[in-house]
Specification:
The structure holds two protein chains of two kinds. Chain A is mainly α. Chain A has two domains: about 1-75, no CATH class; about 95-300, Orthogonal Bundle (MetI-like fold). Chain A contains 13 helices and no strands. In chain A, helix 1 (about 1-30) packs antiparallel against helix 13 (about 270-300) and helix 7 crosses helix 9 (about 215-230). The termini of chain A are close together. The relative contact order of chain A is 0.14. By secondary structure, chain B is of the alpha+beta class. In chain B, strands 11, 12, 13, 14, 15, 16 and 17 form a seven-stranded mixed beta sheet that branches. In chain B, helix 10 (about 310-320) runs antiparallel to helix 13 (about 365-375) and helix 16 packs antiparallel against helix 17 (about 470-480). Chain B is globular, with a radius of gyration of 26 Å. The chains are: A mainly alpha, B alpha+beta. Chains A and B meet through helix 2, helix 4, helix 6, helix 11 and helix 12 of A and helix 1, helix 7, helix 15 and strand 16 of B. Chain A: It is found in: Cell membrane. Chain A: Its main location: membrane. Chain A: This is ABC transporter permease. Chain A: InterPro entries: BPD_transp_1_N, MetI-like, MetI-like_sf.
Chain lengths: ~300, ~550
């Protein structure tokens, strides 16, 4: 188990270097960011040259990358154009997005699995068919449609919640954005757990459990559910990474100043330190989430062991 | 990790943990401003919030509340009025003596002296400080020493700035520039307190100025709280208790917040909401021309566009654009069809007049004739280039192209070249890599006709992206700058503009309006020429 974890951690190193290099190249491909700092005015050549020099933009690309990576290992992620340290931006943005992701994942788990179990147990009944149709609709509606729609209905028309999230981004304010963010994944979780449950209801161990005379709820929660959750856990694990990085649309609609906002701003302004820095952290989140998912398999299914 | 036989209610556990966090994190609540404080939409300023580094409206908004300079532009007329300056005198339009009024202080108690200005200007111009607005000081004698084109600075300060006593300093310019004092309302010319020079980082976290508001708190990238400074001695004390500026990434969200009573003032009404504005806000909606002009610039650095005879083609393209229709259909009246190369916000006294005349009026037959007479489009085609990440640029370019294609009747000869980001677009433009016509938006720094013409069309000027050059135009601008009499100077600038009307190096498209909506709590909301709300005049309640 310990050796497995170490091996997985070592595997992360090349993945980490590869992804940061790719991102660095892509941001670099967007071009020189200095001209945009001057708005519609022509950049003053002397000032622009000085800024390029300070950002090492006058160096060859490979050297820029090495300088950047060197700084990262010293904990220095560079400075955004508005003069703020990228680490500072991260310290404000990641907690907000983490809270949002947490809300979304909890909604996914609670609602998605419950619906999946109900629908899997009632396979073929009107309830099951109805839920399938509903999830199909939810999957096909893009986030920005559901986001603007719910914002308008709940925030403006009925006035139940505020249409935007304040700068504190408290958890209760994040429920609506969390629902919007979770919607699509929630539909997937429902479908995944439904299929899995429906398959396993006819498994031998379930029949045995029922034959032993166990109460129905115990058969479902302890035996059926636990064995049916592996695909769902895989999905949710990968989804944590996707939700953290993919909240750009939701964060924009609800004015949440999280990772998506900083990335959007960074891309618009060609601000490579911000973009590369944030994506680097997201890569790490993704890798760790995947590792945790793999380790969870062993907990869910005793037949799986890591050596 | 194989606790299969132990009961592990892990789902419930996770939920409980989250609920516990929810409960503890919901302690705060409330929010909302105190009495007399209004909230207003904002975007994150692009550069650090220091006067000489701020060249866009969002940062300018804050500086306008926190600072007062030698002059200030009257929000109604745009006239430059003395603020901190008691007098700015000159006998030769080249050497100026500036005298300050008594009694001005920064909000930290420090006096505003001649040194506060001279130090700030020297700081702004110095190459080591990498200030975006440094070129605004390039008229001053000694600028090259602190800001050489390459290499290190040869001096710490500019020779042309001399402090005479606590309230007087002199400025020597390189050339005659009669309207120079009128430019001093621009934010780059604001004074700075000593605190800025001793600890810049701390100052940037909480800027200290001499204006009617002080910065109460500033969370970068999300909110700034400004409060009325009760010790302010200037003539324009704030009429409200303060302003909370909130950063919005999506102007539509800000608008939703406004109509649901969560926000008081929005100064950028999203295009998709314009048709609802009437029913949502009624008369609490402002839409007026600002000092912003959008033009379509021709790449005169390319021989196929600058050779003799092409001016007819350029005129023809101008006449092929149906400005009325585009501003009405795409912009719902938030743009005004252009009639010259300045802006109606200058006023007639400032030099605004219908100088484009016929050349800016849609006339399909005439356009077709002119383009044919000029020898047709170079290579039979034309592309329009602009960034398309903001401002509905894609839509109007499509409309202009359709209009040109319809006029010529030769199929799709006009095509659109959309550029994904503003940064990329600006690179292509400043490096003269665009081969077809491209968009150029110009927001004036100060309400002077000079600012609309000289930086854009004077030979070799900094923002002359199409590389237009005309000796008579240059001569008229020089004469205007040397003219001591304002009215006469404006006349010369207008004559210069007539040359643009004949040569058409850039097609004026439309003036961009400032638009704003506000809540029922507010009254006396006005926009200045820069389409920024005049915050100090707003009353709450």
């Amino acid at each position: 188990m310990g050796r497995y974890v170490v091996r997985r951690l070592l595997q992360m190193i090349p993945v980490f270097i590869g992804t940061t290099l790719l991102i660095f190249l892509m941001v670099y491909a967007l071009g020189d960011p200095v001209a945009a700092l001057f708005g519609d005015k022509a950049p003053d050549p002397a000032t622009a040259a000085r800024i390029r020099e300070d950002l090492h933009l006058d160096e060859p690309l490979w050297k820029q990358y090495l300088l950047y990576m060197g700084a990262i290992f010293r904990g220095d992620f560079g400075t955004a154009f508005n003069g703020q340290r990228v680490t500072e931006l991260m310290a404000t943005a990641f907690p907000v997005t983490l809270r949002l992701t947490l809300v979304a994942v909890v909604i996914e788990i609670v609602v998605g699995i419950t619906l999946g179990v109900v629908s899997g147990l009632k396979r073929g009944r009107p309830l099951d068919t109805g839920l399938l149709v509903v999830t199909l609709v939810v999957i096909s509606v893009p986030t920005f449609v559901s986001g603007y729609l719910l914002q308008f209905l709940l925030g403006v028309k009925w006035g139940w919640v505020s249409p935007s999230v304040s700068s504190d981004a408290r958890l209760d304010e994040l429920i609506l954005p969390g629902v919007v963010l979770a919607l699509v994944s929630l539909a997937y979780v429902t479908r995944l757990s439904r299929t899995s449950i429906a398959e396993n209801t006819r498994a031998d161990y379930v029949r045995t459990a029922i034959a032993k005379g166990l109460p129905r709820h115990r058969v479902i929660t302890r035996h059926l559910l636990r064995n049916s959750l592996i695909p769902v856990v895989t999905f949710i694990g990968a989804d944590v990474g996707a939700l953290m990085g993919g909240a750009i649309v939701t964060e924009r609609i609800f004015n949440i100043h999280g990772v998506g906002y900083q990335l959007y701003q960074g891309i618009l302004r060609n601000n490579s330190p911000t973009v590369v820095g944030f994506v680097t952290i997201l890569v790490i989140v993704f890798l760790v989430a995947n590792l945790l998912v793999d380790l969870l398999y062993a907990v869910l299914d005793p037949r799986i062991r890591y050596a | 990790m194989r606790g299969a036989s132990h009961p592990t209610p892990w789902v419930a556990c996770a939920v409980a943990a989250v609920l516990a966090v929810t409960a503890s994190a919901c302690g705060g609540g409330g929010g909302g401003g105190s009495d007399g404080v209004l909230s207003s939409s904002w975007s994150d300023p692009q550069n650090p919030l220091e006067p000489a580094n701020t060249n866009e409206v969002q940062g300018g908004k804050v500086l306008d509340m926190v600072f007062r300079g030698l002059k200030r532009y009257d929000p109604g007329t745009g006239e430059a009025r003395d603020m901190v300056a008691e007098a700015i005198e000159t006998t030769d339009s080249q050497n100026f003596t500036v005298t300050l009024k008594k009694g001005w202080t920064f909000s930290n108690g420090e006096k505003v002296t001649a040194g506060s200005f001279v130090d700030a200007w020297n700081y702004a111009a110095h190459i080591d400080n990498k200030q975006n607005n440094a070129p605004f000081f390039s008229d001053i004698v000694g600028y090259e020493d602190v800001h050489p084109e390459s290499g290190a600075a040869r001096a710490k300060s500019m020779r042309g700035l001399v402090v005479k006593d606590e309230r007087t300093f002199t400025v020597a310019l390189k050339d005659k520039f009669s309207t120079w004092p009128e430019t001093l309302g621009y934010q780059a010319f604001m004074p700075l307190p000593q605190a800025f020079f001793t600890d810049r980082a701390a100052w940037l976290n909480k800027p200290v100025g001499n204006g009617p508001y002080t910065v109460d708190s500033y969370t970068r990238g999300s909110e700034m709280r400004l409060r009325r400074w009760d010790g302010y001695q200037g003539p324009d004390k704030a009429r409200n208790a303060g302003v909370d500026l909130r950063v919005y990434t999506d102007n539509n969200t800000a608008y939703q917040d406004l109509i649901s009573g969560n926000l008081d003032l929005v100064d950028d009404v999203p295009a998709q909401q314009l048709k609802n504005v009437e029913s949502d806000l009624g008369d609490r909606y402002i839409n007026q021309p600002a000092l912003i002009l959008q033009t379509l610039v021709f790449p005169l650095y390319r021989p196929e566009w600058s050779k003799p005879g092409m001016e007819k083609v350029r005129l023809g393209i101008s006449k092929a654009i149906n400005r009325e229709q585009i501003t009405r259909q795409i912009y719902q009246g938030t743009r005004t069809p252009a009639k010259d190369w300045t802006s109606p916000a200058l006023g007639e006294k400032g030099g605004y007049a219908d100088l484009c005349g016929d050349a800016c009026v849609f006339d399909a037959a005439e356009a077709k004739r002119l383009i044919a007479e000029g020898g047709g489009l170079p290579g039979g085609r034309i592309t329009l280039t602009s960034n398309v990440d903001t401002g509905s640029h894609r839509q109007w370019m499509d409309a202009v192209c359709n209009s040109v294609n319809n006029v010529l009747g030769r199929g799709p000869v006009c095509t659109v070249n959309p550029v994904g980001t503003f940064a990329d677009f600006r690179n292509q433009v400043t490096e003269a890599r665009v081969t077809g016509a491209f968009r150029s938006g110009w927001q004036a720094d100060y309400p002077l006709i000079q600012n609309f013409l000289e930086p854009l069309y004077y030979t070799g000027a900094s923002s002359n992206y199409g590389k237009f050059t005309d000796r008579r135009f240059d001569a008229l601008v020089d004469r205007a700058n040397a003219e001591a009499d304002q009215a006469a100077a404006v006349k010369h600038f207008q004559d210069a503009e007539r040359i643009l009307a004949a040569q058409m190096p850039a097609v004026p498209l439309w003036y961009q309006n400032g638009s704003a909506g506000y809540s029922e709590r507010l009254s006396d909301v006005k926009l200045n020429q820069f389409s920024v709300p005049v915050y100090d005049r707003i009353t709450v309640g």
